[in-house]
Structures are given as C-alpha cells and as structure tokens.
Write a structure and sequence with these properties.
Layout lengths: L2 H6 L9 E2 L4 E3 L3 E6 L7 H4 L3 E7 L2 E10 L7 E14 L4 E10 L8 H4 L4 E2 L5 E5 L5 E6 L1 H8 L7 E8 L3 E7 L12 E6 L2 E11 L2 E6 L11 E9 L2 E12 L10 E12 L5 E9 L22 E10 H5 L3 E5 L1 H9 L4 E7 L7 E8 L15 E7 L7 H4 L3 E4 L2 E4 L5 E7 L4 E8 L2 E2 L6 E7 L4 E6 L2
Antiparallel strand pairs: 1-14, 2-13, 3-5, 4-5, 4-12, 5-11, 6-10, 6-12, 6-13, 7-8, 7-9, 7-11, 14-24, 15-17, 16-17, 16-23, 17-22, 18-21, 18-23, 18-24, 19-20, 19-22, 25-26, 26-29, 27-28, 27-30, 30-31
C-alpha cells in the first residue's frame, strides 16, 4: 500500500464538538497487609497473592495499596478503588473504611512493628462501605476527592496511598492482590474517569502513518496486514508474543498545557477464556529512526526493551469485545516531549503484559490496510488533539468543502482554485492537479476515488461510466 493513503485518510475532520476522555485504570505499584498477632512477619512474602482486613477479638489486619498517577493531571468525575473479595466472615453488615496514608513510604516489606510510629493515617476515612455477610465479588470505594487533590498537585510525585481497615469487630475479609496470578482479571485496580470539559474540543485528527506487528515465533517476517495483532501466550515454559507498532506524524499544532492528545484504536476481535479482563499496555518507542519503516519491522529489527517508555494500561472486558470496543489512550505528555525534541514522528507499541499462569490472550485491531476493504473506515488508529474551545480553530470553511460533479467536470466548493492528487482505493495517485478551478475526470475508469487537497483535506467521489 502506498504511504500516501496512510497519511491522508480522513485527516480533514476538525470537529468543534465537546468530548470526554476515556477512563484510565491503574494497578497498584505496592499492595500488602500487616498482622497484629504476627508483628514482625512480612505478610506480602509469607502470604503472597492476597490482601486481608480483620478486626476480631482485638486482633487487626490492615491492607495497604499505593498507585502512581504521575502521568495524570485531569480532575475526575469518578474515581473508584476496586477490590475483588473472595472470602468474608462477619456477623451481619460490617463497615470497611479507607484512609489516606499521609506520611510514611508504603513498601511490600512493611510489618506491624514497622508500621507503628512510622506511618500516619488521616484522622477520618476518605470513604466507607458496608459489607453484607454473604457478599463475594467486586467492591468499589469512592475516592474521588483524594484523587482530585493528588492529581492537581504540581510535579510528577503523585501517589495515591491507602490503608483499608475494618471499623467493626467481627469482620474478616480476603481480597485478591496484584501478586496473585491464578486470576489476573481479579487484581485490584484504581479507575478514574476525567471530568467532562465543556471547552474541550477536537482540534486535529490524523490517521496512523505506518503500522504493523511483530511476532517472536516468526522473527524475520514482517506483518503489514489488514489487522494488527497483539498476543501473549504462556503454557509452561512456552511463550509467544505479538506486539503492534504504530507511527503517527507529530501534530502540526504547537501543544501547550491546554491540549490533550489521545490515540484511538478499535478492537476487531479477541479470544481467550471467559471472564477475562483484557489488559493492553501502551509504550512509547523512544529511539526509532525516522528512516525506519514501521510497516516493515520484524521481531529481529524492532527496538530493544531499553528504548521503550511505559505510558498507560487500558482494560476492556469480553462484553466490550463483542461490541468491537474503541480504546482511547491519553498520550499528552509523551507527544509533547517528542514535539519539543523536534521529532517528525511519534512511535508507540501495544503489548499484552505477562500476567502469569496460563494465558492465551489474542486481540485484533483494525489496521491502516483495512482501507483496502473499506476506504471510508474510521476504525483505523488515529491521533487526536483536543484543546480549549476558547481558542478553537475556525473550521467552518474546511468542513463545508465538498465535491461538485457536473458530468465529467469536478469542482470543489468554497475554493476558486485547488491543487492536489486523485488517489484510487489502492492508495495510488493516478492524477496530479495543479492550480485549477475544474478537473476533467473523463480519463478515469469508473469507480471510487479520493481527492487529496494541498491542505490535506480528503474528499471522496465516485466516477460513473
């Protein structure tokens, strides 16, 4: 496929409409618990894979979690701590409290004696939840107020540090920890939904310039197909990986603190066991030479691990998969840094992390080559820049451009003259046009074509017999 169609398709849309960014989900960087009756024991080592809270007969267990949200600065409309409890013993409805840890560094080797005198909890809980005697499953704690406070702080040292305690005296609860690998889809997480910004509008949208995937079981083969595959499979010592690579042109808009930049992709299909939450890591590729063709990367020629910067994890369930879900990633800070460094492209890799145990995750995304099947598709990966509506670019004339056909004569509305290229559905430029008010299409075969104008606007037309 010619690279021209990869760069041109549907980048014309500069929509002045309100939007809300997608929820972001984080795993804890630390989670552990302490035991009053075993004051010197590191429970995270002795009992990995679980978190416990207890308050029975004067004996307590307290669980701790820490989340690093250094790349998050939005105010949120919702923020929930989500824990999956698989065992509960109580005498009725009992109350669980979540406190902020206001001093002390949470570590996995914390003990009861290490906690005493070295940590301070807020005087009142952030949130509380009543737990019924028969409850097993997800519980969600509202910690919106704390997240908004931490997210608004300056710098990158943004950590949500939490202690979970039982208020009442007959409660014992076991939660799954991030360390357990038998049920990775039940690991604890923090999910945050950015607050709607009424002045946040779309400023630019460009489709992926190059894309492809690499496969460790065929290390010298390139995969530039209609689908982008991500895979992590493990069975014993056998492992298979597929990584998807994406390259976008750096935005032409000079980004500032009012901008948000996202990557949007769409899932075509997924396959794994039931009740799985799919996890996809987004990484920035730091040192990929501009001359490298991402479409032609192989497992043996892709960048080495040290050239990646972890950015975000995104999650979706099997139900989402059935609906061909969209996935949108906030990549604002990384794209800003690449633009400031004077880069021409910004490069990303999508990977499924190693979750342990038997895993057979397979995810397929729409690729730019899908345009061969559907030239109008908006499902291929896109880079979207949002900004304040107060400084929105006037796009009235651009949006109103359309093609007028008078027999074989083609003209473009709202333009006296136009310069561009006629491109067929295979991405091949079949005619070049220089400064004309009309173009005679009589020499074209009948079919679907695209007119790419000099300002990168793309207009579709059909040449009849």
């Amino acid at each position: 496929m010619k690279k021209s169609i990869l760069k041109l398709t549907f980048s014309l849309l500069l929509l002045v409409t309100c939007t809300t960014l997608f929820a972001q989900r984080y795993f804890p960087t630390v989670d552990t618990y302490i035991e009053q009756n075993s004051p010197t024991v590191v429970e995270n080592t002795t009992n990995p894979g679980k978190l416990v809270i207890r308050n029975i007969g004067g004996s307590q267990r307290i669980s701790f979690l820490e989340f690093n949200i250094a790349d998050f600065s939005e105010q949120v409309s919702k923020a929930e701590l989500c824990l999956y409890f698989y065992a509960v013993t109580n005498s009725g409805i009992e109350t669980v409290d979540v406190y902020e840890v206001t001093s002390g560094i949470i570590a996995n080797d914390i003990t009861w004696t290490g906690f005493t005198g070295n940590y301070t909890l807020a005087s009142t809980p952030i949130t509380s939840l009543d737990i019924p005697a028969t409850a097993i499953g997800w519980c969600r704690f509202d910690i919106k107020s704390l997240v908004n406070t931490i997210a608004a702080t300056a710098g990158t040292n943004k950590k949500i540090r939490l202690a979970i305690k039982s208020r009442t005296t007959n409660l014992l609860m076991n939660f799954y920890s991030v360390d357990q690998t038998t049920y990775p889809h039940y690991q604890p997480f923090l999910i945050m939904t950015p607050a709607p910004a009424t002045d946040l509008v779309e400023k630019s949208r460009t489709t992926v310039a190059q894309d492809g995937y690499v496969y460790n079981s065929a290390p010298d083969s390139k995969y530039d197909e209609q689908w982008l595959y991500i895979n992590y499979y493990k069975n014993g010592t056998s492992k298979q990986y597929r990584y998807t690579n994406l390259r976008f042109n750096i935005p032409t808009i000079t980004l500032n603190e009012n901008n948000r930049v996202t990557i949007k992709t769409k899932v075509y299909g997924a396959q794994c066991d039931a009740n799985i939450v799919y996890v996809v890591d987004l990484l920035g590729v730091d040192n990929l030479n501009d001359a490298t063709d991402v479409n032609n990367l192989t497992w043996n020629t892709m960048p080495v691990t040290g050239n990646y910067t972890y950015l975000r994890s995104r999650f979706f369930s099997l139900d989402d998969k059935n609906n061909e879900t969209n996935i949108e990633w906030d990549v604002t800070n990384y794209v800003k840094a690449q633009q400031t460094a004077g880069k021409n492209f910004v490069n990303f890799s999508l990977q499924i992390p190693e979750l342990g145990g038997y895993v057979g995750h397979n995810i397929a995304l729409y690729a730019s080559n899908y345009l061969n099947l559907d030239p109008n598709s908006t499902n291929i990966p896109q880079l979207i820049v949002y900004g304040s509506s107060a400084t929105a670019i006037s796009t009235t004339k651009e949006v109103q451009k359309f093609i007028i056909m008078n027999g074989n004569l083609l003209t473009v509305s709202n333009t006296k003259e136009f310069t561009g290229s006629i491109i067929n559905t295979q991405g091949i430029a079949v005619k070049n046009i220089q400064s004309t008010s009309t173009f005679d299409t009589s020499t074209l075969n009948h079919g679907v074509y695209f007119l790419k104008l000099q300002d990168n606007t793309v207009l579709k037309f059909i040449k009849n017999k």
